[in-house]
UniProtKB/TrEMBL annotation:
InterPro entries for the chain: AP_endonuc_1, AP_endonuclease_F1_BS, Endo/exonu/phosph_ase_sf, Endo/exonuclease/phosphatase, ExoIII-like
Keywords of the record: Hydrolase, Magnesium, Metal-binding
Cofactor(s) required, per the database record: Mg(2+)
Family statement drawn from the similarity comment of this UniProt entry: Belongs to the DNA repair enzymes AP/ExoA family.
SUPFAM superfamilies according to UniProt: DNase I-like
Domain Endonuclease/exonuclease/phosphatase, first and last residues per copy: 4-248
EC number(s) per entry: 3.1.11.2
Naturally occurring in which organism (per UniProt): Flavobacterium soyae
GO molecular function: double-stranded DNA 3'-5' DNA exonuclease activity
Protein name: Exodeoxyribonuclease III
């Protein structure tokens, strides 16, 4: 089974790119982030015509997450990350697909700091950590997937010395990510490529993609029940070079589950 994540940076504006990539790679499950579309403006028909069922949680102009599944039913569990009933930002959606809990997330950016956006990010991480532990306690296959807006180590960022005071690389944020992993989750891409420089995001400015000045901020965290099934994974880097594409590239893993 092939599972992918892709921050599309505006699903309607990037729809031709998304459909081209789906046709080219045919992943079984896809988590999308940053839809930038209200709930009733999700292009379900086009995605369904491409062979995918879908659930989504939209928001006008900002955020938005979705889960797609090819030839499989999607049983929605929740579209709210527990811990704050007043949080109206559409950043999390969870479903059960083929016996696997799929948590699709778009973690806050947190910039500028200090300030309320950074504090919101820290609190969101706290909520995610609590929910992640709850999922582990269920002792079932689970994957937390998406744009975490964090580079876990210096290996995950071009010129790390320039990112010391950015909300994606602050010590507090890296510590929060590491704390979740230490619960018993496996960082799938880093497990497969322990010593390699791998990026999933390249800014539109200063020819970042051409210079390979990137960041690894899109991650898969696997519960122990599914980590043992991990077989391969990678970055569809070439998609970042397509016309009118997102500033992220799709990331994928393959597991031994039919």
């Amino acid at each position: 089974m092939k599972i992918a994540t892709y921050n599309v940076n505006g699903i309607n504006g990037r729809l031709p790119v998304l459909l081209r990539w789906l046709d080219e790679t045919a992943p079984d499950i896809v988590c999308l982030q940053e839809l930038k579309a209200p709930q009733d403006n999700f292009p379900f028909k086009a995605i369904n015509d491409a062979g995918y069922n879908a659930i989504w949680h939209g928001q006008k102009q900002w955020n938005g997450v979705a889960i797609l599944a090819r030839n499989m039913e999607i049983e929605e569990v929740t579209r709210i990350l527990p811990g704050d009933d007043e949080d109206i930002q559409s950043r999390y959606i969870e479903a059960l697909i083929n016996g696997i809990v799929i948590g699709c997330l778009y973690l806050p950016n947190g910039n500028p700091l200090p300030g309320p956006k950074f504090e919101y990010k820290l609190k969101w991480f706290d909520r995610l950590a609590e929910h992640a532990e709850t999922l582990l306690n269920l002792k079932i296959p689970a994957i937390l997937i998406g744009d975490f807006n964090v580079m876990p180590t210096e290996l995950d960022v071009y010129k790390p010395e320039k990112w010391g005071n950015d909300a994606l690389f602050r010590p507090e944020i890296r510590k929060a990510f590491a704390a979740i992993v230490s619960q018993g989750w496996t960082d799938a891409i880093r497990k497969l490529y322990p010593d390699e420089k791998i990026y999933t995001f390249w800014d539109y400015f200063r020819n970042a993609y051409e210079r390979d000045a990137g960041l690894r901020i899109d991650h898969f965290l696997l519960s122990p029940q599914i980590a043992q099934e991990l077989r391969s994974g990678g970055i569809d880097r070439h998609v970042r070079g397509w016309e009118k594409t997102s500033d992220h590239a799709p990331v994928w893993i393959e597991i031994d589950k039919k």
